[in-house]
Amino acid sequence: MDTVLYLARRLLQALAVILIVTVVVFCLLHALPGGPARGILGPQATAQQIAAFNHEQGLDRPLPVQYLTYLGTLLHGDLGTSYTLNEAVSRLIAERLPKTLVLTVLSALLGLLLAIPLGMWQAARHNKAVDHTVTAVSFVAYSTPVYVLGLVLVLVFTQTLRWFPSQAPQGETLAQVFADPAALVLPVVTGAASMVAVFSRYMRAATLDNLAEDYVRTARAGGARTRAILWRHVFRNSLTPVVAMLGYYVPVLFGGALVVEQLFNYPGMGLLFWNAAQSSDYPVLLGSVLVISVATVVGTLLADVVQRIIDPRVEAGRT
Known about the structure:
The chain has a domain at 89-310: MetI-like (MetI-like fold, Orthogonal Bundle). The chain is mainly α. Helix 9 (182-211) runs antiparallel to helix 12 (250-264) and helix 13 (269-278) packs antiparallel against helix 14 (282-310). The protein has helices at 2-30, 35-41, 47-57, 63-75, 89-124, 129-143, 146-160, 174-178, 182-211, 214-221, 226-248, 250-264, 269-278, 282-310.
């Protein structure tokens, strides 16, 4: 029952945050220079055109009424129309979002698959030369901008070794994207690098904390080997803070995708957002912000759910 109440509370909190996000995006729309009409029609629009547009779109009505109308359109999946591409924003995002999710999920999986054992391996060799070396490399990887790392990977693995192409798959569908897996390698590795650096540090710290617990000393006294202690006893308990951090890392992954997609010309949400920013396509920009914000909230909620499953001791009343 405590678990059900906890999940219900977290779901209500997530819905409240999403509602706040819609308010923020609505305010941003009205904060555009010259208002939404000027931002959508462009700087050459006349006063008569702006007035006609405001009346047609209901922008001359009171703000509370406009917000309720905006909320209603969102519930129907209407995010507006791109005035540079002349297509529905929801359609553009529906075409690009799955590709960004593929890139983000693959980067996250690779990052976790490398970071978790690396962090545990460091903890088992605490304060040894190899631990300090990996820590130094992690700090360098974390502090290196994504675009710099991507350019270095292209220089080494494309220009010098000629192992992988420098451009990501250019398919309109996911099947076309997966048709050239070699072209996904560099974008995925670039997106995963900072995650490995961050999460290996979290896993190392969590593992060290658990290695100091009484149950570990008891297992050692019983003759258990270090490897068995790490994977049978320490591993699951050390995952809890890592999983909790994963939900809050979602916006970082999406932010990294913006740079990675532009760098490797990958046709996802990041490239869509970049092109919209270049052409001041405000409906696409704000629609993308809304979708990414909702994805962040959902990612945080899922992380809390998984954390609760891994460690039922998480308090049901935690905010």
